[in-house]
Structure formats: C-alpha cells, structure tokens
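for the writeup, i need someone to sanity check this before i put it in the appendix. the sequnce is what the collaborator sent (i think, or maybe the updated version? ugh). structure was predicted straight from it, no edits. if anything looks off just tell me and ill rerun, i have time this weekend
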Amino acid sequence: METTLYSLMEELMEKYKKLKIPNRFTLEEVENILKKKYLVIELDKKEFGDYEKISKCYSIQNEQILNNLFSAEEKISIFIMLEHLKKEIKLSTKDIDEIHAGRRINIILESENQYISSFTIQGISNKLVNELIVLKGIDSEKCTLENQEFLYYLQALLKAGYINNQ
C-alpha cells in the first residue's frame, strides 16, 4: 500500500512540474485570476479589522459562481444553518446575514512584498480555500515529497482542479 501511495505522489509531483505555474503568484496575477474566474468585486480594506496588514479585499456575490463553489455538503450545512436561524431567531431569510446565507464570500489577502503571505475567507468553500492555497504558492526549495507543506500544496492543486489523478 505504501509503495502505491508513494507512486501516486510521484505521479502528482510530475504533473505539478508539467504545469509550469509559478511557485508564487503575484498579487496582480491573483487579482486577475479572481476577477476572471470568480467575478470578484474589490472591497475597501478599511471595512475590515486590522487593515494595515491587509493588501486586498474582495467579495464574491454572483449567485451562479457561489453555487458552483459550494459542495453538496456545504450547501446542506448552509440550509441547516438557515433553517435553525429562522426557527430560533425568528428572522426572515432577507434579514439573515449574506455570508451565513451563502449569498456572499469575502476574501481578505495579506501580503509581503508582492505575494500573498496569508488569507482569510469569510464564508465557506473548501474549493475556494484550495484555490487560494495554490495562488499563495510555495517556495521552490520546499517542493519535495518529504516536505509536509508541499504534500498539502499538491493536495490543494488536486482539489482545486489544477491537476488530476487520472
């Protein structure tokens, strides 16, 4: 079993090398990808807490994009939460916070120099988290199968659809 798993990881690493994507995307590249792929709207970073560390803030509000971002499990979680809020708090759907209702996801990027150093997502979407892990990137010297961080990065590439295991 271990040999099979190691072979799979070697195969994924070879696919990663063939991608020829940068190890780290610049903030400008990230912004272009987010605008094209997710139709993000840029937000004023002053709307958020410690905005001195924040480089860029975006919001995804397009219903079709959001629907594609949420897994079936995430959609069920949102539905359960909404039903609970309606019963317990007696709020109409209109009054429930957009993020909790799945009608909005905010993306907050922090950076060092021109690259993402950290990010926060307000809302739920594992697909988007994996996309941002890929866009944040990894230092080239860490790209070995013995490095746990690189293994998580490979997993994010797989889950975000940059590589496949077929």
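Residues 27-44+53-122 form one domain. The beta strands are 41-43, 54-60, 105-112, 115-122.
thx in advance!!
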